[in-house]
Amino acid sequence: MTLKHYLWTMLALSAACWGIFIFVVGLVDPSSTNWLGFILFYASLAASLVGSFAVAGFVVRFFFSKEEIIFNLVKNSFRQSFLISLFVISLLILKSVDLFNWFNLILLAVIFTVIEVSLTAKKNK
User: How would residue 124 be classed by pLDDT, with cut points 50, 70 and 90?
Assistant: First the structure.
């Protein structure tokens, strides 16, 4: 797969995921839905965020690190977009169950930072 094909595919799939997310938001009533409605909401938001952050992260990396191999840029941006999206979804879930506070935010940020550092340290070995 060429880089151009990857970018167009990711952009199209991200747009489709955002469309699905908007459809789910319009369809699901949070006060009367069951667990399936919440799963659809968070899953569609997570897929949308992963795609958007992956493309945006790749574009930023592409312009600022000219000597890096393209495959590594794609891999790193996708991994980090997945972690950032999981972080955002975790914060939203904490907020929905009234457990969001500064301590939990800092704890979650430390956990995701340790995960990212351990993944990049394993990659460098």
Answer: low
Q: At 34, which helix (H) or strand (E)?
A: none
pLDDT in tens, 54-84: 999 999 998 888 788 888 889 999 999 999 9
Q: State the amino acid at position 9 in one-letter form.
A: T
**Residue 18 burial (CB < 10 Å; 0-12/13-18/19+)?**
middle
Q: Give the tokens for residue 43.
A: 């899953």
- Rounded Cα gap, residues 5 and 91, in angstroms: 33
